[in-house]
Specification:
By secondary structure, this protein is an alpha/beta fold. It has two domains: 9-125, Response regulator (Rossmann fold, 3-Layer(aba) Sandwich), CATH 3.40.50.2300; 132-199, 434 Repressor (Amino-terminal Domain) (Orthogonal Bundle), CATH 1.10.260.40. Helix content is 49%, strand content 12%. The chain contains nine helices and five strands, in the order βαβαβαβαβααααα. Strand 4, helix 4 and strand 5 (104-107) form a beta-alpha-beta unit. The longest helix is centred in the C-terminal third of the chain and has 19 residues, at 132-150. It is elongated.
């Protein structure tokens, strides 16, 4: 069965059309859904009207600078991941960006591999898996947590039943660690389930 990955939607706001086109080509090749905007004044309405997972925001734009736009975005959505990029980095704007919960602050021109690493980090932080393996770990973790809660078991009680550490069990549930078959077997027995039940719909 093919594993369907969630479509990750990215909005790029930059008055430089060439950069928008370059980034759109790069990101669409990596499987993202991308929309670009050259006029920052329309970005707030666009975000209200459509759901985006990530916004890539230029700092220096006419009519509306990136910091002010980020401030407005936070009033609309305080959870959306925002990556600031700029050809004119300085400490003041970096600090302002972080205070408004930007997930990263990148200098232009950027290295494409570094940029992909930043996006991968954002995906993991926001729980947006990018590979079938990551998606499977997330499904297993969610299923184990749901079964455990249905049975009113704490992580501590699960640790006693399985002989696995609370820390490892917690990491498996949060998809931060992949469970071995033997660990999954112990967890399934502790939850009075079959091992295949832990794989959800896979």
């Amino acid at each position: 069965m093919a594993i369907e990955l969630p479509a990750v939607r990215i909005l790029i706001v930059d008055d430089d059309k060439a950069i928008c086109e370059y980034m759109q080509t790069l990101l669409e090749a990596d499987g993202y859904e991308v929309k670009t905007m050259n006029d920052p004044t329309g970005a707030e309405d666009e975000i209200r009207a459509n759901h985006y997972h990530v916004i890539i925001l230029d700092l220096m734009m006419p009519k509306l600078d990136g910091i002010e736009l980020l401030r407005r975005i936070r009033k609309v959505d305080n959870d959306i991941a925002v990556v600031i990029f700029t050809g004119f980095p300085n400490l003041e704007t970096a600090v302002q960006s972080m205070k408004l919960d930007a997930v990263d602050y990148i200098k232009k021109p950027f290295n494409t591999d570094e940029f992909r690493e930043v996006l991968d980090r954002v995906m993991r932080k926001k729980g947006l898996a990018r590979t079938p393996e990551e998606q499977l770990h997330r499904t297993i973790g969610d299923t184990i947590r749901n079964l455990r809660k249905e049975k009113d078991l704490t992580l501590k009680q699960m640790a006693k039943r399985t002989g696995l550490s609370v820390s490892l069990l917690s990491q498996i549930e949060r998809a931060e660690s992949s469970a071995s078959i033997s660990s999954l077997y112990k967890i399934a027995v502790a939850l009075d389930s079959r091992i295949q039940d832990l794989f959800g719909q896979y």
